[in-house]
Amino acid sequence: MMTQTEQDLYPSRQRAEPEWLERRDPVVHGQAGQEPPVDRALIEQFVRDGFIVLEDVFSPEEVKDLVREADALRERGGLIPESRITERGMEGAEAVRSVFAPHRQSEVFERLASDERLSGLARFILGDEVYIHQSRINYKPAFRGKDFYWHSDFETWHTEDGMPRMRAISMSVMLTDNHPQSGPTMFMPGSHMNYVTCVGETPDDHYRASLKKQEYGVPDGESLTKLAKEGGIVGPAPKAGSVVIFDCNTMHGSNSNITPYERINAFFVFNSWANRLVDPFGETRPRPEFVAHRQVKEPIRPLKAPQSRTTGGQ
Amino acid sequence: MMTQTEQDLYPSRQRAEPEWLERRDPVVHGQAGQEPPVDRALIEQFVRDGFIVLEDVFSPEEVKDLVREADALRERGGLIPESRITERGMEGAEAVRSVFAPHRQSEVFERLASDERLSGLARFILGDEVYIHQSRINYKPAFRGKDFYWHSDFETWHTEDGMPRMRAISMSVMLTDNHPQSGPTMFMPGSHMNYVTCVGETPDDHYRASLKKQEYGVPDGESLTKLAKEGGIVGPAPKAGSVVIFDCNTMHGSNSNITPYERINAFFVFNSWANRLVDPFGETRPRPEFVAHRQVKEPIRPLKAPQSRTTGGQ
C-alpha cells in the first residue's frame, strides 16, 4: 500500500515472532546550546526514562475552565461523526469514554494545544516545529473504568498511520486529581529505547475496536516481562493541573478503576513537522482523519500563557 | 427459610434502598488484661482501620514450600468437585483462579491454618476458640488478572451462609511479592464500623458466578463514595511472607492486573466458635460445604511455629 518512497525503519506485524529492534532516533532533538523551557534535569530524566511529570502547570482556575469544557463535549451536538467513543457503563447505559480531536471541535482545547507550556516544550524536545497528530479527552469512569493493555503508541502510529520516525511525544493534561489506586497510566521506564515488534497482521477497520481495547499491535508477554525486569513499572498519580509527558515509544498501559474517583485528562500528541504522515507501513488503509491528522496546513504557533505562569518541575 | 430462632441484626438485600446500619459487635473481643501476641499498637490500628499488615511473618523457606504446594494444587487430581475455579486466560485457555478449602485438601495448608501465628492471633482478636469458615488459594494471573468489585465479606456470609454476628476475620498470607500496580487488595479504612446493606434479592445458586465476579450483594456507589471520603482508600503491597488481616466487615476490592507480576495468596477466614453458622438470613438455600463450612467437629488447636519465629509488626 506504500506509494511514497520511505524506508521502513520500524517494521512490525509482519512476522510470526516478536523482535527487539534498535531505536534509530534521538529521544530529545533540541539543539545544542539551546536552553530548555524546563529544568535541564527534567530533560535528562525524560531522555533516561521516556516520561516525566510536570506539576502545577495549569492553575486551579484554568483546570476548572477545562473541566467545564470537557464535560460539555460529552454531550455537545454536531461533533465529527464517530469522534465520541462510548461504552456500556455501570447501569447498562452508554457512557462517553473519549472525545477525539477536541482541539478541532472546541476553541478552549484549540487554545490549550497551542499554549506554549505544551507546544513550546514540544518544539524543544522534538527540535522542530510541531503539529497535533492526534488528540482526545479521556474520561475514565469511577467504579467501572476498564483497563487498557500495554502498548507503544509509535508501533500503532507507524504501522497504521504511516508515521515514519520516532519524533513525536504525548502530553496528558490532568483535569482531575489522580489516585495511586484509580488506575493511572503506568509506564515502563527505559522501554522507549527498544522497539518491540508485534506479531501478525492487522485487519481493516481495526481502529473501531482498538480505540476501546487493544487487540492487535499487542506486545508479547515475554518482552513485557523483560522490560519490567529491566526498568520496573511506575504509576504516577499527579494532581489536576499537572502534565505527564511521554515519548511515542514508551511502553504504557493502565489497570481498571473500581474506586469512586473519576479520571479525566486532555491528551495531545505533538509530532515533528518533518515527521508528517506518509502511507501506513502496515497493510491496512489509513485510519480516519479524526484519529490521525493528515489535513494539517501549518505548524502550531505557540501562544503565551494567559497569566505569566511558567512550567513547573516534578 | 430460617428454622433456628436467631435475630437478624444485619438484614440486607431486603429493601429497594440501601441503608447504613450500626455495627453491633466489637472489632476486637480479646479479654481485658490479656496480652496480645503482636504489638498492642497493631491491635489498636486494627480496631481503628479494620485491617493491618504484618510483615515477615513467614520465612522465605516457608514461603517457598507454600508456593510449591499452591502450584501443585492447581493441577492435583481428586479435589472436592467444583472447588477449583477457572476462568478463560490470555490465550483462550482456562486458567485456575482459586482453589477452595485448601486446608481440607492439603496437609501443608491444614498445618498453615493451625499455625499459631495465624490461629493464635485469631483467637485473641475474636476472644474465643476459632475454626475455618472458608479458605482458598487465590491466583491472580499476570497480564490478565481481573478486577474484583467492592464488598463486605460479612454481608455475604450473613445473608448467604447464616453467619450471625461480626465475629470473624480474614487472614491473607502473601505467597508472592505484591506491587503497588499489580492490583493488590484495596481497603477503605474505618468502613468496618458501618454495615452498608445491599438492595434486591439473591437468586439461588448465585455462588457459582459470585466466586468469580460479585453481582449481587454489591454496595451502592453513593455509599462507597461516602466511605472513601471519610477514610480514603489504601492498597498495601506487602512482600511474600507477610500477612494481611482484615475484619469481616471491612469494605475491600481490587483492580485488574496487567503487570507481568502474578499474585498468589493463601486466604483463611477464622470464625469464632460461638458464631457458627445457622440458616442463611437471606432467602437462598445454603451455599455448598466447600465454600462455607458447617461440618466442623472441633475448634482449631494452635500449633507452634516450626522454628521459633514470632509474629512481626508492620
TrEMBL record, chains A, B:
Pfam families: PhyH. It is an enzyme of class 1 (oxidoreductase). Signal peptide: none annotated. Transmembrane segments: none annotated. Residues 14-27 have a biased composition (Basic and acidic residues). The keyword Transferase does not apply. InterPro entries: EctD, Phytyl_CoA_dOase-like. Its cofactor is Fe(2+). GO terms for molecular function: 2-oxoglutarate-dependent dioxygenase activity; iron ion binding. It comes from the Bacteria. Its EC number is 1.14.11.55. Keywords: Dioxygenase, Iron, Metal-binding, Oxidoreductase. Residues 1-35, 295-314 are annotated as: Disordered. It catalyses: L-ectoine + 2-oxoglutarate + O2 = 5-hydroxyectoine + succinate + CO2. The keyword Thylakoid does not apply. Belongs to the PhyH family. EctD subfamily. Homodimer. PANTHER family: ECTOINE DIOXYGENASE (PTHR20883:SF48), PHYTANOYL-COA DIOXYGENASE DOMAIN CONTAINING 1 (PTHR20883). This is Ectoine hydroxylase. It comes from Hyphomonas hirschiana VP5.
